[in-house]
Structures are given as C-alpha cells and as structure tokens.
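Please check this protein record:
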Amino acid sequence: MEFYIAAIAALAVVIFVHEMGHFLVAKWCDVEVLTFSMGFGPTLFSRKIGDTTYRLAAIPFGGYVRMAGQDDSDDPEAENPERGFSAKSLSQRVAIVAAGPAVNMIFAFAVFAFVFLVYGLPELSDTSRVGGVVADKPAQAAGLVAGDLITGIDGRPVGRWMELVEAVRGSDGKEMAFTLRAEDGAERTVAIKPELMPERDYLGEQIGEAWLIGIEPATEYVPVGAFTAVSMAGTRTYYLTAAIFETLWRLAQGRVSARDLGGPIMIAQEAGRQAAIGLERLLLFIGLISVNLGVINILPIPVLDGGHLLFFSFEAIRGKPLSIRVREMALQAGVLLLMALMVLVIYNDIARNISG
C-alpha cells in the first residue's frame, strides 16, 4: 500500500504543480478557465467555483487546464470575448503556456533546496557499505540488502568502495566469498559469482562491460548552510536539465537505446523504491521527475507546451497566427507521436518486468 501511495503522490505532485502554473498565470491574465482537472477518465469528484470546475479523475497520469476561446480546440467562447485565451496578447499567451514548464523547474529547485537544507547535501560514501541492490542480479540472489557493510572479500579486508570495485572487476567471474556486517551488527559470509554486465556512463550509454555483482554505493548527507543549499539546488536543477537534453540528443543519434526509456510503471516502481529508502530520497526523486516534466513539455512537439510556443513563434514572425487547418494537422501529428511514444514506454515497462 505504501508503494502505491508514494507512486501516486510523486506523479500527482509534479502534475499538479505543472497545471497550477498554467492556471495561475491564466487567471492573472484574466482568462476564463473552464476546467482544472487532475487526471483523466471518469470523474471521481468535481466542484464548480466561479468560472472554473475543479475535477479529480480516476487516472492520475496527467491533467489539464481548459480555457475558453482556444480557437484551435472545441472549447466554447468566453462569455466575455475579452476573457478568451485567443483574445489575449501574444506575450500573455506565451506566458500562460510557458508557465507550466517554468513552475516545474522552480518547484524542483525549491525541493532540492529544502532537502539540502534539512537533510544535508547527498554525497556518495567512500565506504564499502551497500546503498542499494539491483534487482535480479548476483548480490540480490545472495541476500545482500541496503545497509550491509562489506568488510572482506576472500579473506582480505575491505574498507573503501574502490577497493570493493577493483576486487570484483578483477575477479574474471570467479565465485568470491563476501564477509558482511548487517546494520544490527550480525556478521555472515556469502558466496557471490560476479556477472559480466554492460557498463554505462551517467546518461545510460554503454561504454563497455565489466564484472559486477549489482550493488550501489551508500549515500551520506553532509550538513550545509542555507546559502550552499540554495546554490547547490540551482546547480542540480541546471545539470539535470542539461543531462536530459543530452540524453535526448544521444537517443536521436542511436547512442542510447529507446528500450531504456521508461513510462508510468517504471516511475511508480522507482517512486516506491525511493520512498522505502527514506523521505529525502523520495523528495529528490520528485524533484527529478518535475525537471523531466518541465523539459519534455518544452520540446517543440505539437500538443505539448513547446509546440504551442512554436506556433506563437511563427505568429510573431508572420504577424498573424498560423491557419487553423495547419495547426489542426500539426496537432494530429503530435497526438500520433505521443501515442506511439506512450505505447513504446509502456511496452518497455512491461517487458522489463516480465524479463526481470
């Protein structure tokens, strides 16, 4: 149950923040907002306050803000024509559309700053303590769990992470005896046979192969002051944004496989895994998802916010909007592209779970 609560919370928060960005700026520009919906599908709850119907739907993987007077949709005209979306100036329409991705970035920055200030700055530990265990790999099969401290390998003492890595990489796949100390102090020895696995860089591109057992280093939180917390939050937001763009570029080049893309199932699973480790890890994951949502939505694909901003760019150059016919064709192509992408990531999620 906690797994599902964490997964839904992680998705719902970043979607709510995104749509709230559109909503608040639309209200500030005096646009008549017809619907603020969290989720799609059957309505679980709705209430109309003023001009707007606030709606909670059954499928939590999305949301939308519906405004009157969007001339490229079937939305009705505003009761007061001056309050329709299309009646607003180009700069106001740009602000409304860009607000969603922008608020996602601001929200991620705020989450990172909060975590760094309250919990400290996360740094990889140089000790040989296990921070995470990769599913269906030799370490998990041998019973290793997060928190185990590896104190020796084949009778040789181990105290630093790189000592552990070098010993496993140099094993040539031979079975090794790992001496472990659990968090409660209990000691045990287990036999693990390293497996030749793809070695990837920080963006997931394969750079070779190495003998591995499927463990991750532990994370330590170093206390920092408010200035450092805010500064590092900005740095993390920037580098995550740059990393996503770099990943998309490598994907287009074929250097990163489309089979590695994940969808809502993988996000839900990862949210549950991070929540099990600790609240601070879940918050950092929510910040990461918020950055992802902001970047993806700014891409110049019709249907997404970036597609609408692209239309506005043409409008600024031409001095008038693109024809409704052109926009409709572009939006249809965008819908097909997003549907194909959704099918791909859900297929990847299912295949990943079936294959283990």
